[in-house]
Design a protein that fits this description.
The complex is a heterodimer. By secondary structure, chain A is α/β, with parallel strands linked by helices. Helices cover 34% and strands 20% of the residues of chain A. Chain B folds into two domains: 92 residues; 146 residues, MetI-like (MetI-like fold). Classes of the chains: A alpha/beta, B mainly alpha.
């Protein structure tokens, strides 16, 4: 084995708590990466993975202190170097690619100027060759028309393109080592898959060392040779990607894997109970003991050391041999289907929504018609007790449709009808009290959807007072009942949102929606802001509520596996137009609409043996085409001019599964079978 | 159910106590709050502890320097400066103490309302606010005082009106930050009325900003009140007032500086105290973003 490029030995990092005690963020962490090796660091939020990656650069966030240990890069200590020395290394030999590069690019400078700055500071390229080198870098990150991109501003690029520019800038200094902090989080699935392939190829070509920080095991499986699992600031498992993802020997790693919904399963994932300890909250024993199925007295009394197994992986557990008995599969709980025939709980009739309003000049000259609606021609009906999943990339209009059903965004055409056949008023202010109560919306991020100044009691009292006029004893009793139903106790009533964990906050948000005793619950990416183990618990809760309350859900998510875990039927949207709709089993299997095929192909499974199937093109479009099939510009199975001019017809396969494509079902089946064979 | 009244009380008062503790833990907060408290206490009890009668003139003791009998010397009419400095803040604190809450309340409500209403109302009203802000404050105030007279009954509404206008801007900006958040959409989607949304969703989140803004406005208002007195439009003699005292004594500043020094130190210590407290309060409430916790 070669000399490690980054060598972190026994590092502990902490900060001073309010009462002066030292709270640990990292505890005795060892990490080494050799040339050409790619190391993944996984863990849930708060596990210290980002702190560790930044410490490898000799950088600590404000307030953090290096308590113990050493960090060396290419044999030299990082924390004893001077500022100018560090500046030379960072961005040069050691480059960082941050999570949201849209925010790390300067908005007022053209892309060319920013890449040239990186070249000037960190490379030996002579000034005369800066622009040729910049174009070369941009083509290496597979950006189309690199010359044109040089003169663009960051906001003119899509998220994926911005991330590619950030990678190009990192490569400008000919780095030996790349640090990547969640580089694909927040990107669409297709874009993410393409970026990961790019990173893999670049690292291989240049035999760079890579440290890849992510909560996403699917991404780690694609790019890493070795994986370190972090929990509560310590390494609990370190092994090859195959060892860690196929047969992990630490109970936490197994729990984490089991909590990820899989495309292949029609079972709900298993939730990990409890929550990780806060900094300083770890006792004398194993940090995972409280949530572990295998824990015994010894685990709570004495902290296990990181031990090397005969198979090569390092694990911090006394019962590594027994951990293999813990299941990695789903919970065995199938999503509840309470479908009752009869009238629809929700129907959308030729719904169209537009964010653009005709301006004064347009109205004067009668140009209203020129505007292409953001969401158009949506025809969906959801049976009572059914869960409809809406999937699509960002900009597909899935959240827009929910907002419109909730009355926050009036449609420009079509109607929204709930059970009983009465159409809903377009704006929420015009709706009857009964309609308001029956339709409830749950938002993506509970940090944003719960008023930080209200206690849980006040949050729950709002729908209860408004819809049922409850007060006093009755109000308190009902609030406690509802909290109980989302598996939180009555003692949560007096807490403020800031005193709850992410999963608990989302439960309160769910409780608030169910306090109205709704018929229809609209779920807008409700698990996207949560850690996977918490996500599993929330999915389980939603499933249970559906079973007991007979609620109808419209479930929006960009994560196809999450949608599959919960939905009876799935609708695929592209650019605000429906492409495919049908029972989820059938939508997730061939034949599919070419767009569904691209989406499903790009899904990353936490399994190093399953490679995504990538379409040739991952350019994100910002607006729908004025005529023809919405997917015409990216379609891998495009026929020709007809796709550009005519809206494709709906074709039904069987059982209410319909695809909107110019190809016949038979052709699609044949094409997809051929590809599967190849 | 194990809810007791004691639990409820704890959550209601603990945020206030936490913020207070946080303010006092910062040097600026501790110094500022001590200064402000000292001024308030002195303003309350000064009539009981002053050594002399504030209007007792003494023609044989004009402009004498500080000594054991007169700690801050005497003024041009032989009155004890220390006595007058002790009493000189009462009027200012009373007027501004009433005018500040009025200014913050009306400005805050208008700001939240315009922020929520948006559209044309907001656009028109904000241009009017801009027009008011572009005029020098002293000009606006003198026009009203000259028209309606100088008494407390004119000064309080005048100060409250003009100092409420910048509060509108601040409250509107804070409202815009809050309005974009999902809990406001959630309240709308549930079907709550506009007043409920202002009162329950927006106000609690804008209150922090308003409190800090209120403290800043208070110190500005004190300065304005003293300036008006200095110009002869505030408190009428012989009532002692810092602004008036500075105006009276400035002619003798070269040979009897104590006459100016006393009220100047008193006025500036109060204003500095308020500003330091506002600063610490902003940091304790997390409005000052640079001071957030590291993790």
């Amino acid at each position: 084995m070669t000399q490690p490029v980054i060598d972190i030995k026994d590092v502990s990092i902490g900060f001073d708590g309010k009462s002066g005690e030292t709270l640990h963020v990292l505890r005795n962490v060892d990490m080494s990466v050799s040339e050409g090796e790619s190391l993944g660091i996984v863990g849930e939020s708060g596990s210290g993975k980002s702190t560790l990656a930044l410490a490898a650069m000799g950088y600590l966030k404000r307030g953090l202190r290096l308590l113990d240990g050493s960090v060396s890069f290419r044999g030299e200590d990082m924390f004893s170097r001077s500022g100018p020395e560090l500046e030379k290394i960072r961005g040069g030999e050691l480059a960082l690619i941050p999570q949201n590069s849209g925010q790390s690019l300067t908005p007022t400078l053209r892309i060319g100027a920013q890449i040239i700055e990186a070249l000037r500071l960190h490379s030996s390229v002579p000034p005369a060759e800066y622009s040729t080198k910049a174009i070369e870098l941009l083509s290496q990150v597979r950006l189309p028309e690199p010359e044109a991109i040089l003169s663009r501003f960051p906001h003119e690029l899509s998220g994926g393109q911005q991330q590619r520019v950030a990678i190009a800038m990192a490569l400008a200094g000919e780095p030996h080592t790349l640090l990547l902090d969640e580089p694909t989080t927040g990107l669409d699935v297709t874009t993410q898959a393409h970026i990961l392939e790019l990173l893999r190829d670049i690292a291989r070509e240049r035999s760079m060392a890579m440290v890849y920080v992510s909560h996403d095991l699917g991404a780690i499986a694609r790019v890493c040779d070795r994986v370190m699992v972090m929990y509560a600031g310590e390494v609990v498992l370190d092994g090859t990607t195959r060892q860690v993802l196929k047969a992990p020997v630490h109970p936490y790693a197994r729990g984490l894997l089991a909590s990820i919904p899989r495309l292949a399963d029609r079972q709900l994932p298993v939730a990990l109970d409890g929550r990780p300890p806060a900094p300083g909250g770890v006792g004398v024993g194993c940090s995972f003991a409280d949530r572990c199925a295998l824990s015994e007295d010894r685990c709570r009394a004495e902290r296990p050391e990181l031990t090397t197994l005969p198979t090569g992986e390092q694990v911090r557990c006394y019962f590594a041999d027994r951990a293999l008995e813990l299941s990695l599969r789903g919970s065995g709980v199938e999503p509840a289907v309470v479908r009752a025939d009869g009238e629809a709980a929700l129907s959308l009739n030729t719904l169209s929504i537009s964010y653009q309003q005709p301006g004064l000049l347009d109205r004067v000259f009668g140009r209203d018609a020129a505007i292409v609606a953001t969401v158009d021609d949506i025809q969906i009906s959801v049976a009572r007790g059914e869960t409809l999943g809406l999937v699509g990339e960002s900009g597909s209009g899935k959240s827009t449709i929910l907002k419109s059903v909730a009355g926050l965004l009036p449609p420009v055409g079509g109607t929204i009808t709930v059970a009983g056949g009465t159409p809903l008023a377009p704006m929420v202010e015009r709706r009857s009290a009964d309609h308001l109560r029956r339709v409830q919306l749950i938002f993506q991020n509970p940090d944003d959807s719960l008023n930080p100044r209200h206690t849980v009691a006040e949050i729950l009292s709002q729908p209860l007072k408004l819809y049922f006029g409850l007060s006093g004893e009755a109000l308190e009793r009902r609030s406690a009942e509802i909290l109980d139903r989302v598996r939180l106790g009555a003692h949560y009533l007096d807490r403020l949102p800031s005193q709850l964990s992410g999963g608990e906050k989302q439960r309160v948000a769910i409780a608030r929606a169910f306090a109205a005793d709704p018929d229809l619950v609209l779920c807008d990416e409700v698990t996207s802001a949560l850690d996977v183990s918490v996500q599993a618990a929330v999915l389980d809760l939603l499933n249970e509520l559906k079973e007991t309350q007979g609620t109808t859900y419209v479930f929006v998510s960009h994560d196809l596996a999450v949608v599959k875990a919960l939905s009876d039927r799935v609708a695929v949207l592209y650019q605000g137009r429906l492409c495919e709709i049908g029972p989820s089993e059938q939508v997730y299997s061939a034949p599919s609409h070419p767009y569904s095929e691209v989406l499903l192909g790009a899904v990353l499974e936490p399994d190093p043996d399953v490679a995504p199937v990538l379409a040739a093109d991952d350019v994100v479009e910002s607006s729908p085409p004025a005529a023809g099939c919405p997917f015409q510009r990216r379609c891998p199975r495009k026929i020709g001019a007809i796709c550009d001019t005519d809206m494709p017809p709906w074709q039904e396969t069987n059982n209410g599964h319909a695809i909107r494509c110019h190809h016949t079902i038979a052709t699609l089946t044949q094409l997809q079978e051929e590809d599967a064979r190849a | 159910m194990t809810l007791t009244t004691a639990d409820r009380k704890y959550t209601m008062f603990s945020p206030v106590l936490t913020v207070l503790r946080d303010v006092l833990a910062r040097p600026s907060g501790a110094i500022g709050l001590t200064l402000v408290t000292a001024h308030l206490v002195l303003a309350l009890i000064s009539p009981l502890i002053v050594p002399y009668d504030f209007k007792a003139t003494n023609s044989s003791m004009m402009l004498t320097g500080p000594d054991m009998a007169h700690w801050l010397g005497t003024d041009h009419m032989g009155r004890d400066v220390f006595t007058r400095v002790l009493l000189g803040g009462r009027e200012a604190l009373l007027v501004t103490g009433i005018a500040t809450p009025i200014a913050v309340t009306w400005g805050g409500f208008m700001g939240i309302f315009f922020g929520l209403a948006g559209g044309r109302i907001d656009e028109v009203m904000m241009r009017i606010v801009d027009a008011f802000l572009s005029l020098p404050w002293i000009l606006k105030m003198l026009v009203l005082i000259v028209t309606f007279g100088t008494g407390v009954e004119v000064l309080i509404p005048t100060l409250a009106f003009f100092y409420g206008i910048p509060v509108i801007r601040i409250a509107r900006a804070a409202t815009h930050d809050v309005i974009a958040r999902d809990f406001v959409s959630a309240a709308r989607a549930r079907g709550h009325g506009r007043m409920t949304i202002i009162w329950r969703e927006l106000l609690p989140n804008v209150l922090d900003t308003l409190m800090v803004e209120g403290a800043m406005r208070w110190s500005w208002m004190l300065l304005a009140f003293s300036s008006l007195s200095f110009l002869g439009f505030g408190v009428s003699p012989p009532t002692p007032d810092w602004g008036l005292m500075i105006a009276d004594a400035r002619g003798f500043m070269s040979f009897a500086p104590w006459g100016v020094l006393g009220p100047v130190v008193a006025l500036s210590s109060l204003i500095i105290g308020i500003n330091l407290t506002a600063d610490a309060l902003a940091k304790a409430l997390g409005i000052d973003r640079a001071q957030k916790a590291p993790v």
